[in-house]
Amino acid sequence: MKDLAEGLPGAVATVRAISEGRLSAESALQARLERCAAMEAEIGAWVHLDAEGALAHARALDAGPMRGPLHGVALGIKDIFAVRDMPWRCGSPIWADRIAPFDAGSVALARAAGAVILGKTETTEFAGYQPSRTRNPVVPGATPGGSSSGSAAAVAAGMVPLALGTQTSGSIIRPASFCGVVGYKPSFDLVETWGVAVFARSFDTVGAFARSVPDAALAIEALSGLALQPGRTTATPRLIPFRGPTWDIGSPELHALWTDFETSLPAEQSAPFAAALSATMRDIPALHARIMAVEASEALAHEYEIGADLLSAKLRAQLEEGAAQTPEQRLNDRSAMLAFRQRMMAETSPGDIWLTPAAPGAAPPFESGTGDPAFNRIWSLLGFPACTVPLLEDSAGRPIGVQVVGRLGEDALVLEVADRLMRDRFEHGEI
Amino acid sequence: MKDLAEGLPGAVATVRAISEGRLSAESALQARLERCAAMEAEIGAWVHLDAEGALAHARALDAGPMRGPLHGVALGIKDIFAVRDMPWRCGSPIWADRIAPFDAGSVALARAAGAVILGKTETTEFAGYQPSRTRNPVVPGATPGGSSSGSAAAVAAGMVPLALGTQTSGSIIRPASFCGVVGYKPSFDLVETWGVAVFARSFDTVGAFARSVPDAALAIEALSGLALQPGRTTATPRLIPFRGPTWDIGSPELHALWTDFETSLPAEQSAPFAAALSATMRDIPALHARIMAVEASEALAHEYEIGADLLSAKLRAQLEEGAAQTPEQRLNDRSAMLAFRQRMMAETSPGDIWLTPAAPGAAPPFESGTGDPAFNRIWSLLGFPACTVPLLEDSAGRPIGVQVVGRLGEDALVLEVADRLMRDRFEHGEI
Asked: CA B108 to CA B114: how far, in whole Å?
């Protein structure tokens, strides 16, 4: 896989260089704008690119003291987040003309930390399954995945070092895997949610795309006030390679690559996953899909009322399926969700880290949709933190991510393990 | 306590009468508009009262078939919810001129169910602790409580049969107690959250004010698609009278009334609360307050950036206290919250129902603020469903609520018990 950001400093390196007087925010931004100029026509990552506003902001930053941990870092924002005075279309013609009257909380926090908001990135329709126009920068003819399509593609193409996205089923981990970048979905509600259009309130989670784990950690540190950088935790992970209940839908190439990956893990740190819990998981992807449909029908009740005819057939069917669910099914499903969350915390231990495929295989063709979130639904339902790192590559050079998952609240350990895996990969070549 | 809604049908009765052709939505609304005209100057419950729009909507409903479970019910909406084309001020001068460009999900669901949106009700500043102008309709000179001040007061004054509000610490249960109405805070995330301005994402919960438990249940049934009406559950509650760790701040009158109430409970259904768990709860109110400050500083980061000088001194101090918390404290607090939630579900049983005071006493004077949410913080942190019913009355005739609380997801049983307590009260006089 070719590196489309070669020579461009990442977020951590940019902030360090600016703070040491070796780089200006303006020149860092200029280099990214050049990548945008070179790539955007082909990729279509942006709904709105505010080069002029971003340059003015970068110059203002250069004229003052260091503002915070993201000082001078160009940031792409998925178009379901409100960014004041920018379009807020959510990938739907219903909101074609809407301009956000305020900043989402996470956007304001990023600004306060010194980030330069470069613009809004393409999303699938309301962050559901109807694709955007965005193309995969590293796999010709393929989908970048969804729903955070533009954020993943912009980072993969080197147009920004960092971008914000959200995950409800697999909308961070899957596109990151398909585009060969790092994608980090924090623990549920670790990051502020206000001003981000909701699809399913029980699962929606704000996270980040980057080219390294420290860069992704930096973004979420700035938004949460937590210390998340790798290299600081003293906890010892227990690595649990986990194929999961959706293994059978994985591609033959995934199966071969994953089997090799498992073999490469240090045996003394690894452990099998409890069989009883594993069996319980079989019903979870379908449970997640049903609750997601119900909650989407509630979150998008206004859009359905004012513009049902402007919804894609796919989304409309999903909303109507959700709205039609019986009171009994709703109650049973919510009870099953709560019970599974309770049980997973009761029957696992601090330090448990699951290693699982990020996606069923490499990015499928653009025309086929945005790919299958099957390997992500369980962790989205649990709200567990997950970080994918681009460790695997099929024979055609297409990336596949390894998804590192921890228990609720164990974000620092997830990032620690993800970072160690990335370093092993790049220091020793093949694992 | 005088009944300011005497002679006016509640929500359930209104829908039934309309469906049976005995009442029109227009005449039901007219009766409420008369109450508004008589009371609003004194109470100040409304930010925006759309009498004309509501009348037009009621007439349109009368001209068509029954639309849903709230057909023809006038509804007040707390001014932190977005209601399209209505003011969306959130009790702050920062948003004095903001008009909402869309409906919150819950508002759209209420409309789809046939509710008539009468207007926006007063809220404390961003649903925090800085009071609105609203007065208590049943206790002269007293606060209605907060933050859902206008919704509680509007229902207490008979201006609407139903109103939506939210709770982060005690913003539904406390004002309902002070105003002598029913307040129902559902399980966390049972009701759609989109389009409701966030104060603290881990606690904010949409709920309802009404004059009876069936009316409150009707509102949340319409928003959640669940079956919640009393009289349907077959589960047997285990009643746990619980004074809680904040008992000492209760007023002498509360202490006397509560002791009598405990004596009135049927001994064969009651049980003591586990001492070990009870001891754990001592630190929870302070934990809740710390997390609330941190999350509010994140949710309101944009408002702080664009209008810090327009924030009240009280809110500004709370946001700055939250923003200043160390990474270690943040991590410890989130871990403690997750552990307490996990433990409370592990060490209690389905059917457990806690009966606790809704507030430390009757409504305090208007000038003293909106009262203390101390008796509500534990349940808000847990996300447990709670319903307060106006069962107690001090020697001056001022109401105090009994708060009925259940485990996460056991909303139907909470409403069942709350309804039984209400019926006992009104069928047998004193308990």
From this structure: 10
- When pLDDT is cut at 50, 70 and 90, the band that residue A1 belongs to is confident
First to last CA, chain B: 16
**B220, B182 in Cβ contact below 8 A?**
no
Q: Are B431 and B259 in contact (CB under 8 A)?
A: no
pLDDT over 60 at B364, yes or no? yes
Contact B192 A227 (CB under 8 A): no
The answer on pLDDT for B91 being more than 50 is yes
| Site from B80, B90, B192, B381 to mutate, A interface, most A CB atoms within 10 angstroms | B192
B328 touches chain A (CB under 8 A): yes
pLDDT score of B429:
45
* Catalytic positions of A, written as ranges: 78, 147, 171
* Known active-site residue B147: yes
Verify whether residue B78 is a known catalytic residue.
yes
List CB contacts (< 8 A) between B102 and chain A. 302
Structure tokens at A343: 């049980």
A344 touches A382 (CB < 8 A): yes
Residue found by looking up tokens 């049934």 in the block: B221
Residue A38, classed as helix, strand or coil, is: helix
Average pLDDT over residues A75-90: 98
Residue ranges and CATH numbers for the domains of chain A are 11-236+352-428 (3.90.1300.10)
d(CA A45, CA B48): 42
**CB within 8 Å of chain B, chain A residues 269-308:** 294-295, 298-302, 304-305
The answer to whether the Cβ–Cβ distance between B192 and A202 falls below 8 Å is: no
